[in-house]
Prior knowledge:
The complex is a heterodimer. By secondary structure, chain A is mostly helical. Chain A has a single domain (43-320), classed as ABC transporter involved in vitamin B12 uptake, BtuC. Chain A contains 13 helices and 2 strands. In chain A, strands 1-2 form a two-stranded antiparallel ribbon. Chain B is 34% helix and 25% strand. In chain B, the strands form 4 sheets. A 6-stranded mixed β-sheet of chain B has the order 6-7-8-3-9-10, sandwiched between helices. Chain B has a 6-stranded mixed β-sheet with strand order 16-17-18-13-19-20, with helices on both faces. The radius of gyration of chain B is 24 Å and the shape is globular. In chain B, 47% of the residues are buried. The A-B interface holds A 5-11, 13-16, 192-195, 197-199, 201-202, 204-206, 209-215, 270-273 and B 80-81, 84, 96-101, 105, 109-112, 114, 118-120, 122, 137, 139-141, 143-145, 148-150, 152-153, 156, 180, 182-183, 186.
Amino acid sequence: MKSETGTLRSGDIPRAGRQWREFLILLGLVALMILIPAIFSPAFRTTQNLTNVLSQIVPMGFVALGQTLPILTRGIDLSVGPVVSLTTVLAATLMGFDTQSVLVGLLICLAAGLAVGLVNGLIIARLSVPPLIATLGTMSVVSGIALTVLPYPGGYVPRPFTQAMLGRIGGIVPYSFIYFVIVAALMVFLMSYTRFGRRVYAVGGNEEKARVAGIRVGPIIVGVYVLSSLLATLGGLALAARMYSGDPLAGNPFTMTSVAAVLIGGTTFEGGKGGVAGTILGVLVIGLLSVSLNLFGVSPFIQDIVAGTIVVLAGIYSAWNK
Amino acid sequence: MIPSAAVENDLLRMENISKAFPGVQALAGVQFDLRAGEVHALLGENGAGKTTLMNVLGGVVIRDAGEIYIGGRLATIRSPQDAQKAGIAFVHQELNLIEPLSVKENMFIGRELVNRWRLIDWKAATARARKVLADLQVPVHPDDRIADLPMALRQMVEIAKALCFDAKIFVMDEPTSALTVEETGILFHLIRRLRDEGKGIIYITHRLEEIFELSDRVTVLRNGRYVGTRETARTNRDELVRMMVGREVLGPVRERRQAPGETVLEVEGLTGVERVRNVSFQLRTGEIVGIAGLQGSGRTELLEMIFGARRVRSGTMRLKGRPYAPRQPRDAVRMGIAYVPEDRERKGLFLDFDVKTNMRVTGSELEAKGGWMRERGVVPRLLDLIARLDVQTPSIHQTVKNLSGGNRQKVVFAKMLYTAPQVLLVNEPTRGVDVGARAEIYDILHRLSEEGVAILLSSSELPELFSVCDRIWVMSEGRFVASFERDEATQEAIME
């Protein structure tokens, strides 16, 4: 009745198929989020709106790309929102008008992001503090630093910087969106074609087994939180350019929305499953949702409710699938 | 005694290995050796030290004393990585495969194949994985995810992975315990191929049949001590059993067989959310009924459903003639049903708490009046239970973590007996328990049944079921497929 290998066949197993199906569902969701407002709102169909959407999703996009990595390793980075805030106030207070001082300002912002990431990573990897606790602490610390640097919204970011961010190709696509596409592509590449990327998945899948397989888990974890923090810094730079100024609290909601985008994108809290590509679609879903809610005159605070609900629903989904 | 030339030819030699854990001398001066191209079985009862010895070899446990020679040279093995570098590969229940990842990723984990840009070379990985899998005739695609594969295939992937790492020594720790007869045959075929290619295989088991079918030599351990090594062809079952147990018979056989009383628990068409399918039976007072079956056959799920710890999809239960539908374990305890779980460290005990707290945690729940714990009369009852079960503990304030496996198990029994149950569900009661304590646990079961308690005993060890039970039911893929009176059951019939 059966072949030589009997019950041991694995032919019926859906190979990569399942992941592709989830990806297609997400793609369909994105298409719907574009189609529905496009049908009902003439304002949505303008090129001005397209430009607006593209530049609006960039800050959250960067942050969510970064957030993907801690979640892949069964962790979370709660400090990304304050890192965004800190970056905007640093940029708004440090950058001068000439190109040189803009570059110095950029470097300082990146150094700050790197420092936060290193601190997070080392606390988690070296001192074995759960990521939730470690980044809950640094979240408050970084937020406090941002408020110390600039206690109220203000300052300014100089023209050379905003031009480099908000200038448009063909009058439509903002440069910042191009940067996002490039960084997103690099992240996809990093996660699929480098040892570091694959080891992030291994550590997320099962940290103990990854260790037994000879992977040094500590450096991987540190790398994960450094990347998360650096990408949040890029998000902060994009946000500062959009606001033309700094704001010590403007970035804080990004912690929540980035987690929501990552979860919508199919990365789960069980670790080792999902990835950056899904997150990009998750970012589009959340970004388009918030644009549509604005267009239809719904209170922006509804978005907080939506993001929170998504996180809880994703948690329920994970628990059920266990 | 052994010429040094022989030492040079050995793939592996372990000498005078000792290891103590708190409260137990797990290994005492144990020796072991392995030649290229042989299957060397490591035999012993649970708690004999087989797994500890192999954990020493694998760098998971650091030995207190002794030397390990690999290929005739002294080896330092202080971590799993050291063992891997020395060419030692492990295949056991707790596989080292990472479930969300694909087969090929697991095969090269930690040593990913990269091209000259130091980027992952997926093509090469797929090709090599495919070749190794094809060589071993493992019907798995390199892109399959581990999570989607049945246990037997996972083990074969683990073997394939070890070959990718150029392993020379394969340690297989009870690899067949979760496999069907057919899958076992395929695994044995694979093991023989490895042997013929000059690899050394250490095969850990407590199943004698497998030893005669597969191994070239056998080493027996008992209570952490080396008993002896035999050529398989020149020994027999009786000798091995004697070496293993240290006496003629396997455990105390249940002699007195009282007539069972009235039916206490009736189960009709019980079907669970997981595994259990349409199970019906009746359990009578004063009898011990065994449930045999492979891991994953649904034994644990069935017991936990009766105990109210798992959801029931359909079917009914009656306890002493009255409808019984527990929604949580507490309901079961209230109704006189107790459960001794298989994983006592995780489900049965608070390891960091003392004996007293552990023993009364379930019972005091019943006695509590309006949320207040009752203190009067508790200690005498605990002392009585400790005496009845002969729990070896300096005081009731001893932290449970410091007790041996057998005594921990007795604490679990005491905890359940504190509730004076009429039905006792017992799951793998002697796992990780030494031989002496094992006999005592059997004795406890017998005494309870004589007192009229109905006992349902789930075990993966057939000899245990034979020596303890009045009747044995066999479970496979969630169903009851056969039942035997004790006299008519044979190991072979049950394996079918």
